UniProtKB/TrEMBL annotation:
Its main location: mitochondrion. This is tryptophan--tRNA ligase. The keyword Nucleotide-binding applies. It is found in: Mitochondrion.
Amino acid sequence: MGRSVLSHFLILSNAAPRFSSSLSCRIDASRFLRRHEPIRHCRLPVGYNGFAGSRCYCSSSVSEPVAPEASSSSVKKRMVSGVQPTGSIHLGNYLGAIKNWVLFQDMYDTLFFIVDLHSITLPYDAQELSRVTKKTAAIYMACGVDTSKASIFVQSHVRAHAELYLLLSSATPMGWLNRMIQFKEKSRKAGDENISVSLLTYPVLMAADILLYQSVFVPVGEDQKQHIEFTRELAERVNYLYGGRKWKKLGGKGGAIFKVPEALIPPAGARVMSLTDGLSKMSKSAPSDQSRINLLDPKDVISNKIKRCKTDSFSFLEFDNPERPECNNLLSIYQVITNKTKQEVALECQDMNWGIFKNVLTDALVDHLHPIQVRYEEIMSDTGYLDSVLAEGARKAADIADVTLNNVYQAMGFFRR
């Protein structure tokens, strides 16, 4: 997350992922009411272009586990991901999440949503929210999300998100929220007069988004790890307080109410940094538009931003030098946008100076983004079609979400009609 890409990039399954026989997963009930045990991280390889054949590295109790393959089960796995509608969708959103969705939609049962409820946790423009929500959906589709393979919907159109958020809030200790780093950072930037309860409880809504669809894996960036830890602990707490025999006594099926998700570390190149500061993430909230490439930026704007972007005084280009964050960022952008390996880019650019490379990068960005921009204009011109896509996507998502929500209501003892 952070806020732009929830990192809400959730891979779901009706069956547990396939690991090697040496995997030992034990759930200790004593953990359910205390704060954070280290989460298991599944690391994706450099050059990752999908899940098939990926290696999965978890805790020390695991020996060479293997990530689930799309073809390993007759049950198609489900993936859910979302992006906030505030501001413009930029290159970081695209390379970090949306570009991979096009690959995933052929392998998984995919649902993508615009997380409009998250966008109101800080001051926002109510006159613009509806427009930018549709705009974001159109960009999803323009980037290659195929509505015959994937569902696209708006978060607030599936009421289960807000309902589960309230139910989970009742099980969330206040101390957990007070310790969240992002709340402290965002509240400091926003000022006391702009801090709302929704900003404090933002992690609970994110947890609801994840748990509602019984997530197994959640790809996250460094700034979202604490939120995934929070989600895991909250899932375990609810399972302990209301699941198992307690749920069964109320007429439920018993067992765990929620699956406890694990964090996936994103592939190289997914974390796109600012054009004006190679140590800061590319962000919608950055005050200068010069710091980011927006997906709808015209050719001349892209060219100007790349020409003016921050570089260094070295006469050659190289990856992975910690003293050259801007160089690594620009090379990584070029690598991912052209679908080349790091070795191929290093060889291609070994004799280039900054002037030549900036022209090459500009051409690659313009060539890649132009078809997206053309398709976006076509979709936005047919509002009836866009509305129907979002309505159908919300219906499909609600069918899935309502099952989880009804189980939670039952386990928590509510009288249901």
